[in-house]
Design goal:
Blueprint lengths: L18 H13 L3 H7 L6 E4 L3 E4 L1 H13 L3 E13 L3 E14 L2 E16 L2 E10 L3 H12 L1
Parallel strand pairs: 1-6
Antiparallel strand pairs: 1-2, 3-4, 4-5, 5-6
Helix pairs in contact: 1-2
Amino acid sequence: MHPSKSVISGDGDTDPGTPTGALAEFYRAFNGRDLALMRANWHPEECVLDNPLGGIRRGWDEIEPLYASVFEGAARVRVVFFDYTLHLGRDLFCAAGRERGQLKRDGLSLELAIRTSRLYRRLEGRWCQVHHHGSIEDPGLLQQYRSAVLA
């Protein structure tokens, strides 16, 4: 299995009827701070998020406030997905790879490196995210990131 050489930033095709389009829709929503588009990317009931900012959150009602606080906060975060593999099933797919990006806030600039996996389920012709796991390996970077975003 060879990782994809393409980068998904959300700037291209965001057709949620395809796996790469659904991933691109997520990154368009995140990088554009678009909560309505983010909501459309997730399955509202059957979803779990486990990341450096929110711990484990289950269901959109728990996940939405985290994204809202990030989008409305002073920190500006932009990430892209790269070095990934897609594992496709009939009605499920998993994307496992890396995110890189940058956080800027009040003169602080951090280069981000995040290990990321996302699981999507096909519902009514579109792929909906049901699970995300992200982790930052560097403990110092993790603490700086959390402080800048959650402050």
